[in-house]
Amino acid sequence: MIYFDNSATTKINSGVLDTYNKVSQNIWGNPSSLHQFGSEAHNLLTQSRMQIAKLLNVSPGEILFTSGGTEGDNWAIKGTAMIKRKFGNHIITTSVEHAAVHNPVEQLKKLGFEITYLPVDKNGRVSVEDLKKAIRPTTILVSIMAVNNEIGTIEPVKAIGELLKKYPKITYHIDAIQGVAKGLENIIFNDRVDLVSFSGHKFHAPRGTGFNYKRDGKKIAPLMAGGGQERGLRSGTENLPGIAAMAKAFRLVMTNEDEKVRHQRQIKSEIFNHIKKFPNVIIFSKNDDTFAPHILCFAIKGVRGETVVHAFEKYGIYISTTSACSSRDQSVTSTLSSMHVDSSIAEDAVRISLDENNTIEEAKKFNQVFDQLYQQFSKLS
Description:
Helix content: 40-55%
Largest sheet: 7 strands, mixed
Mean pLDDT: 95
GO molecular function: catalytic activity
Radius of gyration: 21 Å
Strand order of the largest sheet: 2-8-7-6-5-3-4
Organism: Philodulcilactobacillus myokoensis
Protein name: Cysteine desulfurase
Distance between the termini: 29 Å
Order of helices and strands: EHHEHEHEHEHEHEEHHEEHEHHHEH
Keywords: Pyridoxal phosphate
Domain Aminotransferase class V: 2-366
Shape: globular
């Protein structure tokens, strides 16, 4: 099997799974309990938080555990809207955000908030100048993804941070779900960002795990009220096995990061340079540093994306139709639509997404199968 759908989810690391099982079996105490067993659980929770914080060069108190990217994005957006509503009701985001950002913003719109969706250029990238023009006295939040999950565009999040230094009262949130271990920490953790969302299952941690970075001193309302866990900001008994396993997965994926990024770029280049030779292939992802190293989106004109996905599946190669969250309802990709790609072409789009465990040999096998399928599709056309 060749798994090229890592932007949808990654395989849990065997050592990470071992940590999950050991903690589940040996440290099942509640971290809030006062007895010794509870203290052991609390200490492991603290160690996990410290490990993640150290890897990101932030304070442990700035790391808050969640159930994943969807909760993290919802919390950042709705929590900011709730606590800052008396100061304004205007939110700025982009037209290419993941549903975990787009849908919460649309919910807030129904509650009276005003939303500006920034347009993108032909590469799916927003303009800092457009953002500047969109800012109002009532703007309370700017939410921008670091890496587009459909075509891999790296958004100008650092430049946006520079602009927002002039507007210190606006909360700045980055969805970094697709940005972990891609060599982007220096742009994501710029000195203006307030909130950042991460999802564990995107970097070989268990599903149902994640964390948010919240700048020290930045206020946000809790989405869940209860027992007061996570400093009263995210109540609910902590998923300690998942958190400990996620901290280990994060350490492992961040180890030798530069080498892993180069490796993924090599694999992406192997496929990119091969399929670009074919006249009916349209490639939406560039093969340079303005795009993430692990995502390659393309279309074979006249062949629907789901047809291509299932054709590769017969050879044991797993790819996807852009975002996994919208593939089953067969909705046209929001990114390509926002890029003004004709809907008939957008419906043909598929996505390859890599990780550090993929190989050049897998890329070459993909290219061989691609050649066979391309010939078959050409005959049908």
